[in-house]
Amino acid sequence: MQVAQRLYENGFITYMRTDSITLSESAIAAARDQAARLYGTDYLPAKPRIYSSKVKNAQEAHEAIRPAGDSFRTPAETGLTGSEFRLYELIWKRTVASQMKDAVGESVTVKVTGTSNAGELAEFAATGKIITFHGFLKAYVEGADDPEAELDDRERRLPPLDEGDPLKAESVEAEGHSTRPPARYTEATLVKELEDREIGRPSTYASIMGTILDRGYVFKKGSALVPSFLAFAVVQLLERHFQNLVDYDFTARMEDILDGIARGETASLPWLQRFYFGADDETGLRDLVGDHLAEIDPKEVSSFPLPGTDIVMRVGRYGPYMERDGQRVNVPEDLAPDELTKEKAEELFAQPSGDRELGADPETGRTVLARVGRFGPYVTEVLEEPEGGEGETKPKSNKSKSKAKPKPRTASLLKSMSVDTVTLEDALKLLSLPRVVGEIDGEEVTAQNGRFGPYLKKGSDSRSLESEEQIFSVTVEEAKEIFAKPKQRGRRAAAAAPLRELGVDPHSEKPMVIKDGRFGPYVTDGEINASLRKGDDVDSITDERAAELLADRRAKAPAKKSAAKKSTAKNGAAAKSGSKGTAKTGAKSGTKSGTATKSRAKKNGTAESG
Fold first, then answer.
1. Who contacts 107 (Cβ-Cβ below 8 Å, separation ≥6)?
2. Which pTM was predicted?
3. Using CA atoms, how far apart are residues 378 and 573, in angstroms rounded to an integer?
4. pLDDT value, residue 147
5. Residue 520: which pLDDT band, with cuts at 50, 70 and 90?
6. Percent of the chain at pLDDT above 70?
7. Is 522 a catalytic residue?
8. Looking at 8, 15, 217, 321, which residue is catalytic?
9. What is the DSSP string of 350-369?
10. What domains are defined for the chain?
């Protein structure tokens, strides 16, 4: 939709938020003229081809999406590149092909029988197509949308044969055949399914795809949309407790009603009251939600037993995990639900959990553990449960409650450490941070390990350290030298080499590269940075996918503030000059200003109610 928006704004295509299949007379004439010039009059039907929509309540205020103008430019004449060229070519082909004759051909099946050396009778079959008249295929081959479909230029050509002709087997090869499950939805096939079910509109399909991706209901593997465990939990919740609201027909019926309201055939307020408060024969949304909220068990609706095992799959606050006999193991976020087999689950349970007891702190006597958490490996101490008496069970306030239950000390491992090799001595050094280095100019200097790496802190001033080991070895003299130098922006002295070089971005016409950033790999053209999403692999991402990520990020970028600042400066100058005016002038203009404000209020009110 973003590419289509750019084509529309630059005058290449007509308005694209429509599901109309009706062409204007000038568009039909342009399509017929171009088909005749490119392919000849033999490919034109005697009369223009007129199509009618089978979709209820189709938004036909605009005509079908087509090349703009009374005469069409061929894709080669536009000067477009990349995704803009491909989309324009698709629209151009479909528009021209819609005014051409049908293709004519016949399917041929040849059966060949023979006797093997062992005396066994074998029968082989071959099927092919013979196109006698290409028709609209000259402009567009429908199979281009489906790479697995047979195209005219890729069809099996059969030689001329007559029944009874003798044949010689030059070679015989055995090929296995297995039934494959239905392909996953892609954005294109999902939109087609929504169209078939009469759900959504062309103007909402892009936002639907964005919503299910942004909320983590699906993630991409290549172009396929893979449902996540979170999606299964949400669907289970809706189907168990709000079944009538997730019925496919419910959405289609609601759109029919909303279209009726838009046409003035149905009153909006009575319908909304009935939908929310209910009626004698049905329950409203308010009562439906109110009655079910107390009954819903979050743990139950987010749990799925793994068939053939005693393992339960759950979707928690921090992601999916498996549970068995009190043992928990996290499930990788990029693991598709259909890939979680019994063997894969056992493999995950067999991996070390990451919890390792290192020993006891000599000063406090508390046990120190090494763990693997959501944000990586870390060390922590185990606090003893307080011995509660009758007078200690009821805290007086939230403040006293927090004091009664202190939090354990935790510290992330250094990059050079691992859960399997970290020692108790290492853990105690980490738990002792921040380390006091000394004083400079009467202010305490500490060495700490933060989110963006090791650093020194003096009051509100801070300086980065070159390595994590310096946290424990840096001296006051070294700290003075570091703080004496001017503060530098950025931690790296030189830009790191890109992970991979790609082609040229069609929008900025600059080379695209993939780099490793603070929050993971990202693609950039030097101006816009876009993080790779789930399913995007550094080694296999294509130029088209990289350009798509940059286009999405570019569309979401905030508008430049230069115009706003200029406008603010002008308004400020106007206000300053206005303050010098006389009271008499202000009084005269005040009456007119009040009238104008009242008029605008009426105008806005009319527009909103309409």
1. 127, 128, 129, 130
2. 0.48
3. 57
4. 40
5. confident
6. 80
7. no
8. 15
9. HS--S-EEEEE-TTT--EEE
10. 2-97 (1.10.290.10), 104-154 (no CATH), 302-350 (no CATH), 356-386+399-484 (no CATH), 500-556 (no CATH)
